[in-house]
Amino acid sequence: MKWLAAFGLLLVFAYAIYQMNIYVQFRYQRRDDNDNVFIRVYAWRGILSYVIKVPVVQVDWQDEMLWFESEMKETKGNKRINTVFERHLIKKVVDFILYHPRRFRRLIEKFRTKLLQTKLIVRELHNKVRFDRFHCQVRFGLEDAAATGMLAGAFWMLKGLVSNTLRNQMTSGVCPVFTMTPVFGKDILVIDLECILRIRLGNIIKALYKADKQGGNNRG
Fold first, then answer.
1. Domain that holds residue 107
2. Does 90 reside within a domain?
3. How many domains does the chain have?
4. Is there a contact between 141 and 186 (Cβ–Cβ < 8 Å)?
5. Are 117 and 145 in contact (CB under 8 A)?
6. How many Cα atoms are found within 13 Å in the side-chain-facing hemisphere of 189?
7. What percent of the chain lies above the pLDDT cut of 70?
8. From the CA atom positions of the chain, what is the Rg in Å?
9. Which InterPro entries match (predicted)?
């Protein structure tokens, strides 16, 4: 009977894992031309937690070409801006395309398969995601008052579109919060966006299984 009890415990554990909620907290802040992105993935009330801090990335024009310029904050607070790695990477990609066309075509085919799998995962999970929180505060303005008014109209249209899209995916009793504040006579853009979404781990496993099966059928 011990094996039966162990099997029962295994079933209970598998069910608990399948029903476990995964939470994703996303926050984006823009102030004074500084962008900060914070992503936290957690479960079991934060007992399991993983944090991602995305560095600032901008496009810089150098040597008559566009290069990605990344700003990394070090432990001591120093800032380091580096474009050497990005240049080296781009040159490696160009050499790979020119001198290894067959391998490049195989890579493109693999990329196409992964893209189809990703679309399938998004389609499977679209109606399974629930938002526990969605707060967005925006302060914007231009020196031209008329242009600020037109921009305000565009923002309000975007607000209505996002609200309608999220309404059916918000947790019961929770509504998305938007605050749009136009500032006239001044060039300004301040954004504070925070959202917390959740999804069952079982739904993720199911979507990944279907995507992998679809990818196997495409390769066959």
1. 20-54+100-219
2. no
3. 1
4. yes
5. no
6. 9
7. 80
8. 23
9. DUF2953
